[in-house]
Amino acid sequence: MEMEVRAGTTEAGAIVTMEMEGSKALAITTTVLFNPALGFSVTSHLGRDVGVKELVQVEARSYMKHLVEQANLNFIVTGKVKETGQIVTAMKVVTLHNPKLTVEVSGVAKVSEDMLATVQFTNPFSFNLEEIYLRMEGPGAMLPRFRFYSLLAPNSSVVWTEKFNPQRAGSTRIIASLDCPALRQVYGEASITVLP
Fold first, then answer.
1. How many CB atoms lie within 10 A of CB 29?
2. How far are the Cα atoms of 69, 132, 184 from residue 179, in angstroms, in the given order?
3. Per-domain residue ranges for the chain?
4. How far is CA 164 from the centre of its chain?
5. Would you state the CATH architecture of domain 102-194?
6. Is 7 a residue whose pLDDT tops 90?
7. CB burial of residue 92 (10 Å; 0-12, 13-18, 19+)
8. For residues 15 and 59, what is the distance between their CA atoms, to the nearest angstrom?
9. pTM of this structure
10. CATH architecture of 2-95
11. What is the pLDDT of residues 105-141, one digit of tens each?
12. Which of 2, 96, 163, 170 is most buried when burial is the number of CB atoms within 10 A of its CB?
């Protein structure tokens, strides 16, 4: 038995499509466990023909609220060959990619000169994001700054601009992060070279 996750389905919030294929000309009964702690399973029967395929789709609403910081989905497929009693197992770990924050810096990159840093994020999901914390900082350029948003509706954007004055010359970055219960480890950055 073979299993693969189709390309292009690894964005957080996407429908994950898994394809199973019987590799022998035997009748195989399979069970797909997606994150067994959630109790999600699908049972299917692959026929006697070699190359018979079964598609299983897992919608975002089944997994988004259970994701933790690593944002991995574990798929375990077990099967039993009816004629021989042989047990076959396959496992696939799918790492989901979070959306990114956009960070842009404008102004003259010079010590003690005013500059602007702008962070932008659009909610790509079909559900509200709640209790959103944004953070922006830059070593030698900007002390940590914070913003809180109670709600961000689907397809809505937040744009946050802060003024800062770099305090030392050299290369540095302005780094921003977003954290909320439904979405972890979202970040973005912009590099700048500050002149004396």
1. 13
2. 10, 6, 5
3. 2-95, 102-194
4. 31
5. Sandwich (2.60)
6. no
7. middle
8. 5
9. 0.65
10. Sandwich (2.60)
11. 999 999 999 999 999 999 988 889 999 999 999 999 9
12. 96
